[in-house]
């Protein structure tokens, strides 16, 4: 699915680049006081014999430009996992994330800009089949790109590079599980669409 999204994004970028060259105009860009919403929606399915697994995710964000290059905002994420083998469920779980983020855009007023994002999330997991719950925190730093296809709409992508998470099961005596990630994993490329309010 991510390959399909990546291909679609490249096609849109190529089309708009040709149009921009033909019209010799620049569109989009951010400045102090701008408000934007963004987000991504994903669905994946994998089948093997009688076994089928599904993943659905949605992750909206809302941000405000504190200055010409710095934006801050709130984000929400929900992911569900389900799977069955010949009609018998073996996966039924969900994850809810609520957090804040900050971004620095290097050329925010341009049609194309690189940015860095730092986000902090509170995460709650619920495994219904195992009757198990856990919660924790996630801190992640990622670079990204933003490209305006019109005055109000942009396509963006981020790649996870540096992250730390901690999780603890919801029962007495449970110990925290900590995880530290560093590196570029193309499976962690996230694409989204941005709408800027005038």
From TrEMBL:
Domain spans labelled Outer membrane protein beta-barrel: 9-197
What lineage does UniProt assign to this protein's organism? Bacteria, Pseudomonadati, Bacteroidota, Flavobacteriia, Flavobacteriales
Keyword terms, alphabetized: Signal
What is the native source organism of this protein? Answer: Olleya sediminilitoris
Name assigned to this protein: Outer membrane beta-barrel protein
* InterPro entries documented for this protein: Beta-barrel_OMP, OMP/PagP_B-barrel
Task: Give the range the annotation lists for the signal sequence.
Answer: 1-20
Transmembrane spans = none
């Amino acid at each position: 699915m991510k390959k399909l999204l990546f291909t679609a994004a490249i096609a849109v970028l190529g089309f708009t680049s040709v149009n921009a060259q033909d019209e010799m105009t620049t569109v989009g860009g951010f400045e102090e006081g701008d408000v934007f919403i963004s987000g991504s929606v994903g669905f994946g399915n994998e089948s093997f014999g009688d076994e089928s697994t599904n993943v659905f995710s949605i992750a909206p964000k809302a941000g405000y430009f504190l200055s010409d290059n710095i934006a801050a905002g709130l984000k929400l994420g929900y992911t569900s996992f389900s799977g069955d083998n010949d009609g018998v469920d073996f996966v039924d779980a969900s994850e809810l994330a609520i957090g804040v983020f900050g971004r620095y855009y290097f050329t925010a007023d341009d049609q194309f800009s690189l940015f860095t994002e730092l986000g902090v999330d509170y995460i709650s997991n619920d495994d219904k089949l195992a009757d198990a719950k856990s919660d924790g925190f996630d801190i992640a730093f990622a670079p990204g790109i933003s490209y305006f296809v019109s005055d109000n709409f942009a396509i963006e992508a981020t790649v996870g590079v540096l992250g730390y998470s901690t999780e603890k099961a919801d029962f007495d005596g449970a110990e925290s599980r900590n995880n530290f990630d560093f590196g570029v994993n193309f499976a962690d490329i996230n694409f989204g669409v941005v709408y800027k309010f005038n």
